[in-house]
Amino acid sequence: MNISVNPKQDTFHLYNHEVSYIMTVLPNGQLGQLYFGRRVHEREDYSYLLESKPRPMSSCVFDTDKCFSMEHIRQEYAVFGTTDFRMPAVEILQDNGSRISELLFHDYRIENGKPKLPGLPATYTEDESEAQTLIIGLEDPLTRIRLELFYTIFEKGGIIARSARFINNGKEDVHLNTAMSLCMDLPDSDYDWIQFSGAWARERYPKTRHLEQGIQSVGSMRGHSSHNHNPFVILKRPSADEFQGEAIGFSLIYSGNFLAQAEVDAYDTTRFLMGIHPAGFDWKLSAGTSFQTPEAVMVYTDQGLNCLSQTFHRLYQKRLARGYWRDRERPILINNWEATYFDFNEEKILSIARRAKECGVELFVLDDGWFGQRNGEHAGLGDWFVNREKLPDGIAGLSEKIEEMGMMFGLWFEPEMVNMDSDLYREHPDWIIQTPGRRSSHGRFQYVLDFSRKEVVDRIYKMMEKILSDAKISYVKWDMNRSITECYSSALPADRQGEVYHRYILGVYDLYERLTSRFPHVLFESCASGGGRFDPGLLYYAPQGWTSDDTDAVERLKIQYGTSYCYPVSSMGSHVSVTPNHQLNRNTPLYTRANVAYFGTFGYELDLNRLTGEELEEVKEQVRFMKKYRRLIQYGTFYRLQSPFENNVAGWMVVSSDRREALVGRYKILNGTNQPFERMYLKGLDEGTKYLVNGNETHYGDELMHCGLVTTDASAGETAPGEKMSCDFDSELYVIEAV
Ligand code: DGJ
Question: Domain Glycosyl hydrolase family 36 C-terminal spans what residues (predicted)?
């Protein structure tokens, strides 16, 4: 890994074994982009990559030159109004009403490792030798705004992490109306765009289309990254697939409003922008202050989408997630939400916990409904003290009883919200986000606390800190169940209202930071009505997230498959729930529910007392299985093999880093009669190693990968006596062990 700067100090080349990232200072002083892709040789001069051609109808920078127009030049952080007409990375509104900036190269510095981003989640290094950071300083001579562009190259993987910091060295206050984290101009547009979109209970479905001239984008203006779109986009070559070909992944480490956008211009170049959504964003950058954008991560590969995902998995698992639980196998939990909803008392909870303990479950999680007057959706949020009618011995008493059973205890909070029917709201009706003179919309009868205000965050911290320190709590589920509307803070002046969405998220991060530092051994799981804020920003604080409120195994197959494009298995909360399923009314076999949930953090969300004896034995066996294989599953290398979006039979697998162990999941959605013969072609094994498959047959790695694992099931022809009948929603696990 290296960052080389040519002697004239106008070309910068960041490279490691896999990628090169090259940029240059342009003749007008702005910064130009030359190349991002597979590693190329180092040389002093790459100016041949700077194509400036005279083109009709262009506006040009120099009065003696018809060639140099920013409209046709690929840039690093494009500004509007200096001959480029594409969407810019930055827009700064100045005192005289002008929105034109000219950010010219001024200086650079190189740091070993990676500097922290103040108040924001970001990737990090544990040792300075793991990465190097180039910081390029650009300045606008008129406004004296300084922009620092941060580029970190990691030693391993085709990863470049980027962010921008604005410093107002001028005398005037200005307004940042657009301040993207990343601007990436690519030399052509022959890409398929893949976004990860959906809605509540069907999050992160991959959706693909070819780039065309014009703009395509996804984003969120809901105050959270959202169920609807994830802050992650892949641009891949049309011929690339899971196993080969070129692709670039763009991921934003942020949990609030975001925009990811590709603009293809008239000359088939592509500008990719990613950052805080400019709509509704207006940051007053007073003289002498600075503003830091969130971090965006780009990953390049020429080895297909599995390789791209694996690079994100490793980075986000090891150098974004932090703390005690980062590298630890995750406890198998039982959560009472779908078992009881709001209708519980201590006895009911203890009976579920007892049964779970018998089955080998390690953590009991008490969900919504334990506090204030919370007996339904209308009341209680904000009152983070126990409801003694339900739990006479308090959380401390209950957690002790659970611990005495030999299980850990976890608790649900929704810290950012308040019901009007709560003591907190009655005391501080002005603490919610609301616009003076306007109606306040509710979501699930709840209102959003103004986390842009420190005193609000302080108060919630105090309540949570007390509960967490008075009781034996090992896990927190942090939920968030509505989007922000009528966004306005009564604590900020008129010219700072455009800061509220971002300040809100900074408040959320601040509370997370305080709680995770004060309780470093507590495992945090993020949640937002399931996967409404499943993003890298929260992964920094909470190493796992509740992937979706949809617990149906077949639906989950799609959701977890889509989520895996960016996020590691260890981050995906996944539970076995009851049938008929509460979201879909569908019946699936208990083994299929587990076979899907294993590929995540694994747990149960049902009342085990309602299962038959036979089912309980099956659950015990599942728990034993997960304990044996969870290190492999959660920390192995994950491969998508066959997509549930394209096939009736889906498959995925994990392989241990030494390639001596693997686990394959095969899932058949609908059964059929007299079905074709089937094989699944495995990946990541060692060709020369002999493996035992499910304790039966042995095969070399090359056979399993090239001839394929034979998976033809009983629906092909007649079922032999004693053979398991296949059925709808069937599934099979294959344990592969080196002999
Ligand atoms: C939404 C979450 O996603 C559910 O798991 C559950 O915690 C409910 N909220 C509780 O209100």
Answer: 650-735
Cα first-last separation, the chain: 38
Pocket flag, ligand 1, residue 335 (CB < 6 Å): no
The beta-carbon contacts of 16-21 under 8 Å, at least 24 apart in sequence, are 16/153, 16/154, 16/155, 16/156, 16/157, 16/158, 17/156, 18/156, 18/157, 18/158, 18/300, 18/301, 19/153, 19/158, 19/159, 19/160, 19/300, 21/151, 21/153, 21/160
Helix, coil or strand: residue 730: strand
DSSP conformation letters of 556-593 = HHHHHHHHTTTS-GGGEE-EEE-SS-TTT-----HHHH
- Point out which residues pair with 131 in neighbouring strands: 154
Can you tell me the distance from the alpha carbon of 541 to that of 253, in angstroms, rounded to the nearest whole number? 12
Task: Yes or no: say if 730 and 713 are a contact pair by the CB < 8 Å rule.
Answer: yes
Q: What pLDDT was estimated at residue 175?
A: 98
Cβ 195 under 6 angstroms from ligand 1: no
CB atoms within 10 A of CB 554: 22
Assessment of whether the complete model's pTM goes beyond 0.90: yes
Half-sphere exposure of 585 (CA within 13 A, CB side): 0
| Strand segments (E) across 200-306 | 202-210, 214-220, 229-236, 247-253, 258-264, 270-276, 283-285, 290-292, 295-301
pLDDT band at 54 (very low <50, low <70, confident <90, very high): confident
From the CB of 367, is ligand 1 less than 6 Å away?
A: yes
Mean pLDDT of the region 576-600: 98
- Contacts of residue 514, Cβ cutoff 8 Å, sequence gap at least 6: 461
- Mutate which of 337, 414, 526 to test ligand 1's pocket (most atoms within 8 Å of Cβ)? 337
- Distance from C-alpha of 311 to C-alpha of 141, rounded to nearest angstrom: 40
Give yes or no for a contact between 150 and 165, defined as CB atoms under 8 angstroms apart. Answer: yes
What is the C-alpha to C-alpha distance for residues 459 and 473, in angstroms, rounded to an integer?
20
Question: Do the strands 408-413 and 363-366 form a parallel or antiparallel pair, or are they unpaired?
Answer: parallel
Tell me what pLDDT residue 724 has. Answer: 83
In three-state secondary structure terms, 446 is: strand
pLDDT in tens, 494-524: 999 999 999 999 999 999 999 999 999 999 9
What pLDDT does residue 680 have? 98
pLDDT band at 612 (very low <50, low <70, confident <90, very high): very high
For residue 655, the tally of other CB atoms under 10 A from its CB is 23
Under DSSP, the state recorded for 609 is: G
Which ligand 1 atom is nearest residue 546's CA?
3
Residue 714 has pLDDT above 90, yes or no: no
DSSP letter at 262 equals: E
Tens digits of per-residue pLDDT, 337-371? 999 999 999 999 999 999 999 999 999 999 999 99
549 is known as an active-site residue: yes
Strand order across the 544-546 sheet: 572-573, 544-546, 523-526, 475-478, 408-413, 363-366, 333-335, 603-605, 575-577
Q: Is the link from the previous residue into 580 a cis peptide, with omega within 30 of 0? A: yes
Q: Which pLDDT band, with edges at 50, 70 and 90, does 23 fall under?
A: very high
Query: 532: which 2 tokens?
Result: 């409404």
What are phi and psi for residue 625, nearest 5 degrees? -60, -45
Residue from 208, 73, 87 nearest 562 by CA: 208
Q: Return the residue whose CA atom lies nearest to atom 11 of ligand 1.
A: 368
Concerning whether 607 is annotated as a catalytic residue, the answer is no
User: Which amino acid residue places its CA nearest to atom 1 of ligand 1?
Assistant: 529
Residue 97, phi-psi category: left (phi > 0), alpha (psi -120 to 50), beta (remainder): left
Angle between helix axes 553-563 and 590-597 (nearest 10 degrees) is 10
CB atoms near residue 588 (< 10 Å): 25
Could you give the 3-state DSSP secondary structure of residue 503?
helix
Contact 332, 573 (CB under 8 A): no
Cα–ligand 1 centroid distance for 383 (angstroms) = 17
Q: For residue 54, give the 3-state DSSP assignment.
A: coil
pLDDT of the residue at 572: 98
Contacts of 220 (CB under 8 A, 6+ apart): 226, 228, 229, 231, 256, 257, 258, 277
